[in-house]
Design a protein that fits this description.
alpha/beta, Aspartate Aminotransferase, domain 1, Aspartate Aminotransferase, domain 2, about 40% helix
Length: about 375
């Protein structure tokens, strides 16, 4: 397998730890160790105090898998395999797909979601989101037309990175119905689930809704603890999960013992952490909307429906790449151009989950005022 350069990750590698502000970070404000320990219950504190630093169970600590399973009605700990989130993508797609398979992938998307299938010799159809009328849209009729006899997998991501798009329940039900009628798997990247702005629009995890559904999730985005590198795959297809576990023997084999216990703490404190992060996102979303709509000749603001990112459009003739380069050079603020997602148009991603968002956007306002 040969993979091309991961554009988004190389862009972050260039700037993430050298610039003053990351205006495009996709995760929520990171918790400190002290904050997380202060939220821990008695059981997880005992686990932490008595933690041994030996190898861990490949599937994940039993208590961790139990805590994950509680997020999903109808899912048990035996339906869970823990892995770093990117590792989960790598494991699942390498296990599911063979050369010649056809894969339909929501687009734009995190690059590995379409690059790994292509590297395996699959034919990939990009099912594109389109802006219009002040929101993002998916054409479900186009999805139905894209099916082929060799279609093996649909890959979706809701709430969506980088747009913040969320389908209606009826649209989501139709995606599942179309897959079920053809016996096609659905791989659902749900890293931003639990960050919906209207909780009534929250979608069920695909692993809980569909017998051939695979949920990818983790603690990096909604929970604000990306340094734990803790995620998971969930599916009710036990035979497939066993194959995932066998593939993991060739990646990390097992997880970090300290990370597992800290992950248990985070999951047990879910309500506090999500409420904290939604407060930050909601405040930043209002600031972003006021700023971008103040300059309609420069930007088109397309409100996200969930998650911690948005994908505005730069209306001016300058390419988004040049705009982002000027901002980082003159204001020491990193903004992510839409080109790293291989997506047409002149979009750029902003992250809504950090406490310094207002200060970072203020420097962008200084730049705009000086043009």
């Amino acid at each position: 397998m040969k993979l091309p350069e991961f554009k988004l990750e190389r862009f972050f590698a260039k700037y993430e730890f050298s610039v003053r502000f990351l205006l495009s970070a996709s995760d929520c404000e990171s918790l400190t160790m002290a904050e997380l320990l202060a939220m821990a219950d008695a059981h997880s504190l005992r686990l932490w105090k008595n933690l041994g630093l030996g190898y861990t169970e490949s599937a994940g600590h039993p208590d961790l898998r139990e805590a994950i399973a509680r997020l999903y009605p109808g899912i048990s700990a035996d339906d869970i395999l823990t892995a770093a989130p990117e590792e989960g993508i790598f494991i699942a797609l390498n296990t599911l797909l063979d050369k010649g398979d056809h894969v339909i992938v929501i687009h734009p998307a995190y690059q590995s979601l379409y690059e790994i299938p292509e590297s395996l010799g699959c034919t990939v159809t990009r099912w594109g989101l389109q802006p219009g009328g002040g929101s993002w849209h998916l054409d479900l009729d186009a999805l139905e037309k894209d099916f082929r006899p060799e279609t093996r997998l649909i890959i979706v991501n809701f709430p969506h990175n980088p747009t913040g798009y969320l389908p209606t329940r009826a649209e989501y039900d139709r995606i599942i119905a179309l897959a079920r009628s053809r016996g096609i798997y659905i791989f659902s990247d749900e890293m931003y689930r639990l960050l919906e702005f209207d909780i009534t629009g929250r979608l069920d995890a695909v692993a809980a809704r569909y017998e051939k559904g695979i949920t990818l999730s983790g603690l990096s985005k909604a929970f604000g603890v990306p340094g734990l590198r803790t995620g998971w795959l969930a599916t009710r297809d036990r035979a497939l999960l066993k194959r995932f576990a066998s593939f993991k023997d060739y990646t990390t084999i097992c997880g970090s013992a300290p990370s597992e216990v800290l992950a248990i703490m985070a999951l047990e404190a879910k309500d506090k952490i999500i409420a904290r992060n939604m407060e930050i996102i909601s405040r930043n979303k209002a600031v972003a909307e006021e700023f971008f709509t103040r300059y309609p000749d420069l930007f088109t603001w397309i409100p996200p429906m969930g998650g911690s990112v948005a994908f505005p459009l730069l209306e001016r003739r300058m390419p988004a790449e040049g705009f982002c380069e000027e901002i980082v050079r003159s204001k020491n603020v990193m903004i992510l151009p839409g080109s790293v997602f291989d997506f047409g148009g002149n979009h750029f991603r902003v992250g809504l989950g950090r406490r310094d968002f207002h200060a970072a956007l203020g420097l962008v306002a200084d730049y705009v005022a000086g043009r």
